[in-house]
Amino acid sequence: MSGNPDPVPTASMLSISEEDDAVAKDSLHILPLSGLPLVTPGLKRARLVKNSHLEGVVELFADSQSGSGQVAPEDLPQVFHFDADNQRDLPLIRNLSQLSSYDVYSLRVELRRLGIEVDDVDDLRLSDAKVHEVTPHMSSFTRPLLRAVFGKDDKKERSLKELVQLFASPDAEAAQRNLGKLADQMNLQVTDIPKFLENYGDVYLSLAYYQSCLDASQAKLQAFLKALAELKADKNLGKERGVVSACSAVETKIATVVGEVGDTLDMFRARTEDMWDNMSADSFQRMEQMITDYQSKVGGALCVTSVKLDAWAEKFPRSGVGGPVRRADFILNTMRRGLDRVESIDYHDKP
Q: What is the pLDDT of residues 65-84, one digit of tens each?
């Protein structure tokens, strides 16, 4: 366990603040365990995190003084006592540690696949603050819907709540007619439209969230790519074939991951526009299923990007920090670790 030499957790060690857990809900790489069906009290006060090697480990404590106290799932019996009452906690933690991302949308898919129920469904929703933050990214997915009902583009950035309220009582006579047409297309009663919109909004909120995560990575990505170029051009390290090869491999992998996520999100925008040309319950259900099918892969790809770029930025926050040798060592021993397990987003199977 890192962060403290004593493997026996104390009450203070097994303490992740509620504020930290609230932030973790919006994270790609942190999973609070408080809402999962665990029996071991100490585990319910801990959380799973992806470390810089992309391994899922149990974080028992985290603070600025002690650092992060992390335990590999297979080492948990050295920290906690397991018997007939709580022995099922171990395989559950092992299964969760293997997930590629801990974002709420990937978790919905993967927990359902594993047959795991959470105590509170709100644990699998973004915080209100994060929803507000990603709302600007919703417009490209909601604009075709607004155009279908109101007959024109809506330039305003609307939250999901505002969208539902807008459709609950449209003022314009033409909008009411179009709303009736939409209900017919979806095989719904007009009164059922607000519920449909909540579902529609939640599906596309996942894409807005992923776009937000992708955008947030751009500055760190550019700084990292610049650092790689400097390493390869270094008069001494540039002659080290192993270093140059590792730099190129890491650069290619991360750039590919970022590119695939961007292409996937662009594909969903285009398909959403097409969907509204001939909207029906079946077309939306196909789109909904398609987005759900890709959430784990997109979330996993973004988790890789986030974890690796954050690790680099924390170690080398400015261009002058560290030196070529330390940076090369970090590339060899940290940045490239785990990248071989990253799953590619396949495009040949897109319907």
A: 767 889 999 999 999 999 99
Amino acid at residue number 37: P
Q: Give the strand order in the sheet containing 30-32.
A: 30-32, 47-50, 56-63, 67-71
214 Cβ partners below 8 Å, 6+ apart? 258, 261, 262, 265, 302, 305
What tokens appear for 196 in the block? 């449909």
Whether the model pTM is above 0.85: yes
Between β-strands 30-32 and 47-50, what pairing exists: parallel, antiparallel or unpaired? antiparallel
The residue with tokens 């047409």 is 181
Rounded distance between C-alpha atoms, residue 21 and residue 127, angstroms: 11
Q: Compute the CA torsion angle 303, 307, 308, 312 (nearest 10 deg).
A: 150
pLDDT tens, 174-202?
778 888 888 888 899 988 888 888 888 89
Question: How crowded is residue 168: how many other Cβ atoms within 10 Å of its Cβ?
Answer: 12
Beta bridge partners of 71: 58
What is the Cα–Cα distance from 84 to 201, expressed in whole angstroms? 44
* Token pair belonging to 319: 């261009």
